[in-house]
Design a protein that fits this description.
The complex is a heterodimer of chains A (about 270) and B (about 270).
Chain A (H helix, E strand, L loop, with lengths): L1 H6 L11 E12 L2 E12 L3 E5 L6 H8 L7 E6 L2 E2 H6 L3 E4 L11 H10 L15 H7 L15 H13 L5 E5 L7 H18 L2 E5 L3 H7 L2 E6 L4 E7 L14 H16 L1
Parallel strand pairs in A: 3-8, 3-9, 6-7, 7-8
Antiparallel strand pairs in A: 1-2, 1-4, 4-5, 9-10
Chain B lengths: L1 H49 L10 H10 L1 H35 L1 H16 L2 H12 L3 H25 L3 H9 L4 H38 L5 H10 L3 H29 L3
Helix pairs in contact in B: 2-10, 3-4, 3-6, 3-8, 3-9, 3-10, 5-6, 5-8, 6-8, 8-9, 8-10, 9-10
The chains are: A alpha/beta (about 270), B mainly alpha (about 270).
């Protein structure tokens, strides 16, 4: 019994942060094609990781692997020390898709409430955010649009609903697969700021896939650079920028230095 | 301030003008087909009178209108049986189609086993199968309901199967992330997303169920619009025949309108 407790990362010694997600030599294969090749990384609890890489490097595949949408061909993936399936059933993580994936017949509020309805009749006890769905919509800046149908909302607003929906079960880990990729730059900037605010308020761990270098630098505490053919970890870059990030930060020399550095590695990936 | 108020006053004027143009467009859109129909009836009336066409070959619209009012009680006595047969056929045919579609979607084997049979039944002309059904079920209500149900069945089956399969892959991934059970996926995702497909089938069924009931009555019935059509044809009572046909199409239109209204109330996305 004590041995089990010892290997449980959430029971770690004070000081070192717990591990939110851990990949050990994890590979993903689609038939003969290797999408991810022996990837190992530990994501500390509360961190904000952005994932960058050329197309085909397995950025999205990695999120899908962590979220138990696809199985690992070999290696181990765990979330807070549990197998991914167990973590999925316990709703320890939430996923935000590239397109919002809202149900078109449900209003914004009903879409946010969906995760609370699933499993309730089966008597499964789910973690619930201390904020109500209405408050969550307010948090993402959609106060007053609770009863709007997705078809009545803009792309940016739909993505906000998706974020509110992801937060409704108080996830400890938030997986985001290019959530703002299809939005215009103004909307994207705005949502980036809002996401950072939510990250600070909730303390959630974030894994954020993007193909935009500025977005990766602006959001991330750490940028995970993957390389393609096969998908492998190239480098983890610590972004040592002030905690309170504003849009103006992008014009600073520090910021440009990081962008230039990342662009250079990306070219050789 | 003064400027703002003039602006808003102008805006109101523009809005009113825009609404007026919109209304005129709508009225024109409605007036055109109605006007055309009236013109055709007038031409028909003049043609019959000018060329002295005998009433039993083609009655004038005025004769038909007179008969419609004069024989209204008889028409109504014959209307109700056809109405009940159509409605019951509509309900049973669509109910079985929906249930079987659900079975098909849940089990590929059931689909493989029964779909060819469903196609085969659909290829038998309804006029050919009607006498068989009357022989089996007798001259009462049942045979007509079965025929009406049969004619509704196939389009609804095909549409419903397509509708239940037309779920976006991302919705299913979301369901997996939320660890939704098969029945939750069905009730919360598959069924609602199939509704637009179902309603386009129900629109077809609303008119074909009346055809089924009338064909059933041709084969053997004492009462009903189908029986009245046969009766007035054999008696060369053309005005009554036309009035009955008018009544039958009125029934179809009413059922179609009922489905259309239900669709508008239910599908608001």
């Amino acid at each position: 019994m004590s041995a089990v407790l010892e290997i449980n990362p959430t029971q770690e010694v004070a000081g070192a942060p717990a591990i939110a997600a851990s990949l050990k030599e994890a590979s993903v294969k689609f038939g003969a094609f290797t999408a991810i090749d022996r990837l190992s990384i530990d994501i500390e609890e509360g961190a904000f990781y952005t994932i960058l890489g050329p197309s085909g490097c397995g950025k999205s595949t990695m999120l899908r692997l962590v979220s138990d949408l696809i199985p690992a061909a070999s290696g181990e993936v765990s979330i807070f020390g549990k197998p991914t399936e167990e973590a999925r059933i316990a709703r320890e993580f939430a996923f935000v898709f590239q397109d919002a994936a809202l149900l078109p017949w449900r209003t914004a509020l009903q879409n946010v409430e969906l995760p609370l309805e699933i499993g309730r009749k089966r008597g499964i006890k789910l973690p619930v955010s201390d904020k109500t769905p209405t408050e969550l919509l307010e948090l993402v800046g959609l106060k007053g649009r609770e009863n709007a149908l997705p078809s009545e909302l803009s792309g940016g607003m739909r993505q906000r609903v998706a974020i509110a929906r992801a937060l409704v079960c108080q996830p400890k880990l938030l997986l985001m697969d290019e959530p703002f990729g299809a939005l215009d730059e103004m909307t994207r900037d705005h949502l980036n700021l809002q996401l950072l605010k939510i990250w600070k308020e909730t303390g959630v761990t974030v894994l954020f896939v993007t193909h935009s270098i500025p977005e990766a630098v602006f959001l991330g505490q750490k940028v995970m650079m993957l390389q393609a053919h096969p998908g492998r970890l190239r480098e983890i870059v610590d972004i040592d920028l002030p905690e309170d990030r504003t849009i103006e930060l992008r014009d600073t020399q520090e910021f440009t230095k990081y962008s230039a550095y990342l662009r250079k590695i990306l070219e050789t990936c | 301030m003064a400027l703002a108020s003039t602006n808003s006053a102008e805006q109101v004027d523009i809005d009113i003008e825009a609404r007026r143009v919109e209304r005129r467009k709508k009225m024109y859109a409605a007036a055109l087909p109605i006007g055309t129909a009236i013109a055709l009836i007038v031409i028909w009336q003049l043609g019959v009178r000018l060329f002295d066409v005998p009433t039993y070959i083609a009655p004038a619209p005025s004769d038909v209108a007179y008969t419609f009012v004069d024989k209204f009680p008889i028409l109504m006595v014959n209307f109700w049986p056809t109405f009940y047969e159509s409605i019951l056929g509509f309900l049973f045919g669509n109910f079985f189609a929906i249930v079987i579609a659900i079975a098909f979607v849940h089990s590929k084997n059931v689909e493989k086993a029964f779909f060819p049979i469903a196609v085969f039944i659909n290829t038998i002309p309804i006029l050919a199968i009607a006498p068989i059904l009357v022989l089996i079920f007798g001259p009462g209500l049942t045979a007509k309901v079965v025929i009406a149900a049969l004619i509704c069945f196939f389009p609804t089956l095909v549409n419903m199967v397509r509708g239940l399969q037309a779920v976006s892959p991302q919705s299913l991934e979301l369901a997996r992330i939320l660890s939704a059970s098969k029945s939750e996926i069905f009730w919360k995702i598959r069924l609602p997303s199939s509704l637009p497909f179902l309603f386009s089938a129900l629109r077809i069924a609303a008119t074909t169920c009346v055809i089924g009931a009338i064909v059933g009555e041709w084969v053997g019935a004492d009462l009903g619009l189908g029986a009245l059509i046969i009766d007035s044809t054999f008696n060369f009572n053309s005005p009554l025949l036309y009035a009955t046909v008018f009544m039958s199409s009125g029934l179809s239109v009413c059922l179609f309108a009922a489905v259309a209204i239900a669709e508008r109330l239910i599908i608001r996305w």
